[in-house]
Write a structure and sequence with these properties.
The complex is a heterodimer of chains A (259) and B (259). Chain A is mainly alpha-helical and 259 residues long. Chain A is built from 12 helices and no strands. The longest helix of chain A has 38 residues, at 169-206. With 259 residues, chain B is mainly α. Chain B has a single domain, classed as MetI-like fold (Orthogonal Bundle). Chain B contains 11 helices and no strands. The longest helix of chain B is centred in the last third of the chain and has 38 residues, at 167-204. Chain B is elongated, with a radius of gyration of 23 Å. Chain B starts with 11 loop residues before the first helix and ends in a 7-residue tail after the last helix. The chains are: A mainly alpha (259), B mainly alpha (259). Chains A and B meet through helix 1, helix 3, helix 6, helix 7 and helix 10 of A and helix 1, helix 5, helix 6, helix 9 and helix 10 of B.
């Protein structure tokens, strides 16, 4: 809670507290364009961006782009995180797997996902496949790393206690392994989601027929700054919402932690 | 997950190379299966040949140098601005209230998603590239500096007050040293992010020299061998820059030998 919100709360304007930062931003934006500090070509007034937004909403164009992007994100995330989870856990559980794959894993991790776009386009063409694969790559590494660290980090004495109590395997999983590993893995998922979204937008900017990124790139080519701004705002909003949602899941799952 | 080779794990390094060697073998085999396969899975010999050609003609060093140059220039600009803004927001409530919301809103948008906007404002130029990568470094440095300075524990500040430090002394003797680990971590992240942004920006603004510029052109010309060489060097240079940061971090914090 920023100082402005605290101030608003204290003065009895608590209903204003939540939206205050956004209102300040919007106010500054309207002021800057209204006062003519910037030429029209550089910064369009919020009203024009809003008009472009409603226009695209009405024509269904926005929904089409958005659903395409989110669809790709979902599939890529599911693929990448499940593979990452499996791989990370197996690397943590089996020394053999770790020894044989760790160096390759670390090397591949260094290559930015975006750098792989040209290779994937050459192999798979400018279709849906390469975009889903890019998201898969972007999601795979953070999740694998998180899973590896989480499973590695389970204190050995937990297992000893389990043995002393002769806990059956399923109970061990539910009461010992999952609570200790799920929170860091969810954090890994959150990071993967953020990176995947950014990578997907970049991939769509480069080569796509539909999607938020393509919408922005087309707007750029048509010199429609309002369309580009709608894209920028929506991309930011989606990123924010996804991140927030994951943070809620994280908080919920970490409830058992003694804080 | 880093290895230091000692007597216990001397067998690790060769075993870590088994999987990559195997994959290279499969690659080479696939390239011999037919012209269709050779298009995607370019024979290793041809990759090696192109590599030597690119190095000899000076193309590779020139573009690599340009990419690293872009990244470093933007790092200096964005990083400095980031440290300044981060410090300002951490030390001044007013700045935090006024600029904070704008910063956090900007941070939500994936940096590469700003490319169409910057492209419209500054055109398809070197300047646009530097602006985008600077924004990427700026965002990271601001956050890390802000959190580093904010996270200074109260007891340290109390000691400063007990010793009747002036504001300047408080800043230089207490806040800054405690914040330096955060700032150096921020620098490492900023370098990684800046490199990522450089790759993305060069793929989308294919103007001027740059590794990803030739990679994009190679993709359009369907030269898989050049694309692969570029990927290798992008990963290598990224790794190099990261190592330099780690080394710098150690030099700046001699009191943290147990890093």
């Amino acid at each position: 809670m920023s100082a402005a919100q605290a101030l608003a709360r204290a003065r009895g304007f608590s209903w204003l507290a939540k939206p205050l930062p956004l209102l300040l931003l919007l106010g500054a934006w309207t002021l800057a364009t209204g006062a003519g500090w910037y030429p029209r070509a550089l910064l369009v007034p919020p009203q024009q961006v809003w008009d472009a937004f409603t226009e695209m909403l009405a024509s269904g164009e926005l929904q089409e782009h958005l659903s395409m992007s989110l669809h790709r994100l979902l599939i890529g995330m599911m693929l990448g995180s499940s593979l990452g989870l499996a791989f990370g856990v197996s690397m943590a559980l089996s020394k053999t797997v770790e020894v044989y794959t760790a160096s390759l894993f670390n090397v591949l991790r260094q290559v930015p996902s975006i750098a792989l776009i040209p290779v994937l386009i050459l192999i798979f063409g400018i279709g849906e496949t390469f975009k889903v694969l890019i998201v898969t790559k972007a999601a795979f590494f953070p999740v694998a790393l998180a899973a590896y660290t989480a499973v590695q980090g389970i204190p050995k004495n937990y297992f000893e206690v389990g043995r002393v109590y002769q806990l059956p395997g399923l109970v061990l999983l539910r009461r010992v392994i999952l609570p200790s590993t799920v929170p860091p893995i969810v954090t890994g998922l959150r990071l993967a989601l953020g990176r995947s979204w950014g990578t997907l937008v970049a991939a769509e900017l480069l080569a796509a027929e539909a999607g938020i990124g393509q919408m922005m790139e087309f707007g750029r080519q048509m010199f429609r700054i309002d369309v580009v701004m709608v894209g920028v705002v929506i991309t930011g909003l989606i990123g924010f919402v996804l991140d927030r949602a994951m943070k809620l899941v994280e908080a919920r799952l970490s409830r058992w932690r003694p804080r | 997950m880093s290895f230091t080779v000692n007597s216990k794990n001397r067998g690790v390094l060769p075993r870590g190379l088994v999987l990559p060697a195997l994959l290279l073998g499969v690659w080479q085999y696939l390239s011999t299966l037919g012209p269709g396969y050779a298009y995607a899975f370019v024979p290793l010999g041809s990759i090696g040949h192109s590599l030597l050609e690119l190095i000899a003609s000076g193309e590779l060093p020139r573009h690599g140098y340009a990419s690293v140059g872009t990244a470093l220039k933007s790092l200096c600009i964005g990083g400095t601005l980031g440290i300044l803004l981060g410090s300002l927001m951490a030390l001044s409530r007013v700045a935090d209230v006024v600029i904070g919301p704008l910063y956090h809103a900007l941070r939500q948008v994936p940096t590469l998603g700003l490319i169409p906007l910057i492209g419209l404002w500054f055109g398809n130029t070197e300047l646009s590239k530097i602006v985008v990568v600077s924004i990427a470094s700026f965002e990271v440095m601001t956050l890390n500096t802000y959190e580093g300075l904010r996270g200074v524990e109260n007891r340290f500040l109390e000691v400063g007050r007990v010793l009747t430090f002036s504001r300047a002394q408080l800043f230089f003797r207490v806040l800054l040293p405690v914040a330096i680990p955060s700032i150096t971590t921020g620098l490492m992240h900023a370098v990684a992010f800046a490199w990522l942004a450089t790759v993305g920006v060069e793929l989308l603004f294919t103007v001027g020299p740059g590794l990803s510029v030739i990679m994009e052109r190679a993709q359009l010309a369907e030269r898989m061998d050049i694309v692969i060489i570029c990927i290798l060097f992008i990963g290598l240079l990224g790794l190099l820059m990261n190592q330099v940061c780690v080394w710098l971090g150690r030099r700046l914090q001699p009191w943290r030998r147990t890093q």
